[in-house]
Design goal:
Helix content: 25-40%
CATH architecture: 3-Layer(aba) Sandwich
Shape: globular
Number of strands: 6
Number of helices: 3
Radius of gyration: 15 Å
Order of helices and strands: HEEEHEHEE
Distance between the termini: 34 Å
Strand content: 25-35%
Largest sheet: 6 strands, mixed
């Protein structure tokens, strides 16, 4: 079993948590070369646009797909775009490369805009 540096791994909790937070009516499937390869979700708040989640199958990561999606979001958003990322998540480097900066943090997460 793989261990994760933030919380460890609890299969039952992971299933429950995913079922609670994944709202199919809000998520958009990412399609590449006619294949479903991931999903992303954006939320609109009064003063900000929130990138809630972006996930790609490992085979399609590091190919510029996520970068393009986020760049399009940044280009088209009418409000500042914000997100949160686990401190141990290597995607933080991608967000910083795209111009996001940390504005707050908790023990486990960075908040970027």
């Amino acid at each position: 079993m793989q261990s994760f540096p933030t919380w460890g791994w609890d299969k039952d909790w992971q299933k429950r948590n995913f079922a609670e937070i994944f709202k199919t009516e809000k998520a958009k499937i990412i399609v590449f070369e006619k294949k479903d390869i991931g999903y992303w979700e954006v939320g609109e708040r009064e003063v900000e646009t929130v990138l809630i989640s972006i996930r790609l199958l490992p085979k399609y990561q590091r190919r510029g797909i996520g970068t393009k999606i986020i760049e399009d979001l940044l280009d088209n958003a009418q409000k500042p775009v914000r997100l949160q990322v686990l401190k141990v998540n290597p995607a933080k480097k991608l967000y910083e490369r795209l111009g996001f900066e940390i504005f707050d943090e908790t023990d486990t997460h960075f908040f970027l805009s």
